[in-house]
Design goal:
seven-stranded mixed β-sheet, binds S-adenosyl-L-homocysteine, Transcription Regulator spoIIAA
């Protein structure tokens, strides 16, 4: 193996690495011995010359994303060992790759969640045998062949396909050849879409045309709670995508379920998902609308709904967008709180990583105050267990939600 390029930290800047934080910021670096290309594996040393960790080198304020604190990520077994650990963590909470087909309650979940699985920059979602991979760093993008090999080795005949969907996530400035496509397809597996199961419901997921990897797996537990509280209620699901919350509300006994999304493609998959779950949805009336959620809410009659789900896309994708994003969250939540029927419930979420849970709660507080209604927080939510957060990297907790009871 080639000797590794050394990244040497400034004096006293090794603290966070010793506490297993997975990033090295460029400002902490005293010297780089050699000239690494973006995505190369480098070794990080303290000012005193002790080797601390190895990781992917990248350009920008985060200079190294750590892959290992105690081994060499270039070792042949590195990827199989790392992915096996991720699979074991899912199995610990009952999410198994060997659960398959219509009889299994849940056949889709996140298999690898970046920093939360010690693999910064890598996302892999599992859809009943199909792995959809998104690289968020050049290092992970360049490793995708080895990752695919390791998935094949670990999952053997359970694996139907590995689809690389990194074109929208990998750093475009790096001049990579960013075209989505299959890294592997089992003989005879030709489709881009599969019905998968989540808590006993069926969802059709299209990883090629869908948003992100095809489905928003992080809301699984929160969707189940909506199902639990929906009985007899008139439900409005804003930013519904392909209807995850809508299906749970309907099968939980809602009187009616209106769903709104601005994407026509999402609404068309919502219709397919309603059809796929018809048997478990009873007599519920569905209204499916391709519209702007704010406009829809503004023009809807006050008191028409007694359970609302407000799950918008990330309004703040980076710190610079925070102020405007908070204004948008406040406006949206004020509108929902003012419109929900007395005694109604509002499930409200933010998936912006830069909006922490206290800031989000304060924003919803301002929204409530603006309406003058009596509002209580009944519950608080986060991402599911298959989206783990490294205890050394609390920034990984990105999904926040509140259940409001509005009098
Ligand atoms: N709750 C969904 C995930 C929501 S993702 C689930 O459980 O699957 C956010 C969704 O908001 C996307 O489907 C996107 O198309 C939609 N969206 C973005 N801007 C919108 C707008 N202004 N009005 C309505 N929908 C919007």
């Amino acid at each position: 193996m080639q000797p590794m390029i050394k990244v040497i930290l400034k004096k006293n800047r090794d603290e966070s690495l010793r506490r297993f934080h997975p990033w090295v910021f460029s400002g902490a670096i005293a010297q780089i011995q050699g000239s690494p290309a973006e995505g190369d594996i480098v070794a990080v040393y303290s000012a005193e010359g002790e080797m601390l960790a190895m990781g992917h080198y990248q350009l920008g304020s985060i200079a190294v994303r750590i892959l290992s604190f105690d081994g060499d990520p270039r070792d042949p077994g590195f990827w199989t060992a790392s992915l096996a650990r991720a699979i074991a963590a899912r199995e610990a909470v009952g999410l198994r790759c060997d659960a398959s087909g219509e009889s299994a309650p849940t056949t889709c979940f996140r298999l690898v969640h970046g920093e939360g699985d010690g693999l910064p920059g890598l996302i892999i979602d599992w859809y009943d045998g199909v792995c959809v991979l998104q690289a968020h760093s050049v290092g992970m993008f360049r490793s995708k062949g080895r990752i695919c090999d390791a998935l094949r080795e670990l999952l053997t005949d359970r694996l139907k396909a590995v689809y690389d969907k990194s074109a929208g996530t990998a750093p475009f400035k790096a001049g990579l050849d960013l075209v989505d496509g299959y890294l592997y397809r089992r003989d005879g597996f030709v489709q881009d879409e599969l019905p998968v199961r989540e808590n006993g419901r069926t969802f059709i997921v299209n990883w090629v045309e869908g948003q992100k990897t095809g489905f928003f797996l992080d809301q699984r537990d929160n969707r189940a709670l909506v199902g639990k509280y929906a009985a007899g209620r008139r439900v409005l699901n804003l930013f519904c995508y392909t209807g995850g919350f809508s299906i749970y509300a309907a099968s939980g006994g809602a009187e009616s379920v209106d769903s709104v999304d601005s994407s026509a493609r999402a609404v068309s998959l919502l219709e397919k998902n309603i059809a796929a779950n018809r048997d478990s949805c009873g007599e519920v009336t569905f209204g499916n609308y391709c519209a702007d959620a704010m406009d829809f809410l503004a023009s809807s009659e006050a008191g028409k709904y007694d359970l609302m789900i407000v799950d918008p896309p990330a309004f703040a994708k980076h710190r610079g967008a925070l102020k405007n994003a908070l204004r948008a969250y406040q406006r949206l939540n004020a509108s929902a709180i003012s419109k929900v029927a007395p005694g109604g419930l509002v499930f409200t979420f933010s998936c912006s990583q830069v909006v922490d849970k206290i800031t989000f709660a304060n924003t919803v507080f301002s929204a409530a105050a603006q309406t003058g209604r009596s509002v209580r927080i009944l519950d608080r939510f986060c991402q599911g267990a298959d989206h783990p957060v490294s205890i050394y990297h609390p920034e990984g907790e990105y999904l926040k939600g509140l259940l409001l009871y509005v009098e």
